[in-house]
């Protein structure tokens, strides 16, 4: 933990993240001074103009065994800057960002973002997908519903640099729903048809 004057910075790195991640210094310094939710457009622009590579994030690159892994580069109550590590087929739940600004940049590999909308029935419906190559920046706010996936071949990793403001404490998650099956009238109760 490192004091920034306003807040205490926490990190998975073994030392002050401002020295461990020099290419991220402008972003860390900007975020560490926040005392309210970040402006999403400012954050997305900062990520676009920051030249960061996989080797710059090595001190915190840890992959999960069963799913993607969130590794803290720096955080205060008003933001968290993370390196997310994804093996092939790792994915987020379908989720929104209720009360949180989120922007991320693809550092290595190619990710896929699947976007959804809520329908009047209460069910979610996919509206499209975007292939995200290295350097791609995605920005999402409150009601944006999406899922991020590493759909690359086995053995091909995905690394993304994510920033949330304020830190995520809860988010809405969604799932596809299915009906239990059709109901059959007695007209289909013949011996040769399967039971309904």
Fold and architecture overview:
This protein is mostly beta strands and 196 residues long. It has a single domain, classed as Jelly Rolls, CATH 2.60.120. Helices cover 13% and strands 34% of the residues. It contains 4 helices and 12 strands; from the N terminus they run E-E-H-H-H-H-E-E-E-E-E-E-E-E-E-E. The protein has a 5-stranded antiparallel beta sheet, with helices on one face. The longest helix has 10 residues, at 40-49. It is globular. The model has no long low-confidence stretch (mean pLDDT 89).
Describe this protein with a few key phrases.
196 residues, 12 strands, 34% strand, single chain, 5-stranded antiparallel sheet, mainly beta, Jelly Rolls
What is the H level of CATH, i.e. the homologous superfamily? Jelly Rolls
State the CATH class: Mainly Beta
Oligomer type: single chain
How do the helices and strands follow one another from N- to C-terminus? EEHHHHEEEEEEEEEE
Structural class: mainly beta
Count of runs of 4 or more consecutive helical residues = 4
Work out the strand percent. 25-35%
CATH architecture verdict: Sandwich
- What helical percentage do the residues reach? 10-25%
What count of domains describes the coordinates?
1
Q: Could you give the order of strands across the largest sheet?
A: 3-4-11-6-9
For the secondary structure, the number of strands is: 12
Overall shape: globular
């Amino acid at each position: 933990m490192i004091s920034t004057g306003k807040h205490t910075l926490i990190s998975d790195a073994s030392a002050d993240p401002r020295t461990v991640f020099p290419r991220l210094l402008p972003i860390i310094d900007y975020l560490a001074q926040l005392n309210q939710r970040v402006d999403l457009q400012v954050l997305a622009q900062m990520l676009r103009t920051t030249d960061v590579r996989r080797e710059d994030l090595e001190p915190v690159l840890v992959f999960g065994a069963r799913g993607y892994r969130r590794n803290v580069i720096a955080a205060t109550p008003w933001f968290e800057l993370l390196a997310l590590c994804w093996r092939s087929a790792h994915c987020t739940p379908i989720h929104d960002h209720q009360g949180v600004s989120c922007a991320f940049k693809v550092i290595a590999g190619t990710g896929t973002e699947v976007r959804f909308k809520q329908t009047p029935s209460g069910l979610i419906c996919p509206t499209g997908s975007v292939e995200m190559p290295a350097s791609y920046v995605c920005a999402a706010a409150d009601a944006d519903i999406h899922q991020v996936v590493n759909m690359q071949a086995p053995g091909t990793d995905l690394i993304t640099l994510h920033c949330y403001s304020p830190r995520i404490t809860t988010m809405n998650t969604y799932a596809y729903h299915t009906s239990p099956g059709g109901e059959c009238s007695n007209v289909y109760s013949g011996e040769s048809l399967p039971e309904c």
